[in-house]
Please model this.
Amino acid sequence: LDLRSEDLILLRELGAGNGGTVSQVKHVTTQTIMAKKIIHMEAKPQIRKQILRELTILHDCNSKYIVSFYGAFLTEEDRDIAICMEYMDVGSLEAIYKKTGPIPPPILGKITLAVLEGLNYLYGSHKIIHRDIKPSNILVNSKGQIKICDFGVSGQVINSIADTFVGTSHYMSPERIQGATYTVRSDVWSFGITLIELAIGRFPFPPDGSKLTVLELLQHIVNEAPPTLPPGEFSDDFDDLTKQCLSKDVNQRPTLQELLKHPYVVAAQKSNVDVEAWTRSVRRMSATTN
Ligand code: ATP
Ligand code: MG
Model:
């Protein structure tokens, strides 16, 4: 599929983050609804071309746990990069929990399974580390599928964005904050934070919910105890899984392989939870709050 800017009609804006803006578009020749992400970057034409080349690896990332990729191109003025991907019609877990409150525990099991399988696919098949696991990068559609997006495929994108923004994230692991290189286990930490956030319905740092500056937050992550679930509200297996993901010592933290064998994940695999029915209730709740 050769994507060209002139074949896409804007339907609506979906949101904006640190690195870009996302809109819902329709590809006229194929009638496909897509999500188009525009990433603005101050980069030389040569670098932008290299980024486009690096992004073609996305064509090979095919998994039911990964948002699929349609193509990328430079925008008219050649200043920005547009990435077209599968449109996920129920939205991100961040948007969902902010509208509906904490995510029900049975759904958390299916989310855990999808994210771990997605990360395991990226690393196992492509040696890609995600680097940005958080609720806004886990998307849901009305078929009940849960998929991850916005992973760091392109070394050049990572560099250019790091040059443009101070690359801090609330989901960064203690070792990353202290300058260690990224490993899959850093994604495991970010996922642990994400799971607690989805389970309790708010970002879990600091425990008392007070507002911190970015620097204070980073100091807190490095120096204080990791977040925990409120006692007695969740299953022992879920509690144990999140504790393991949030081991501050990276060498104590489990790998994806180990996590996929955790009793919580094994049980989630076997359980027949109707995620599709849950997405219908999410849609009803969003319709009445908007
Ligand atoms: P950050 O820039 O810090 O990573 P973010 O993930 O919220 O934050 P974007 O990745 O730019 O920022 O996404 C903006 C919003 O667009 C998301 O919150 C999500 O709700 C929506 N979105 C992104 N991709 C899709 C998609 N493929 N389908 C549907 N909605 C999407
Ligand atoms: Mg995102």
Q: What stands out?
A: Strands lie at 8-16, 20-27, 32-40, 69-74, 80-86, 91-92, 138-140, 146-148.
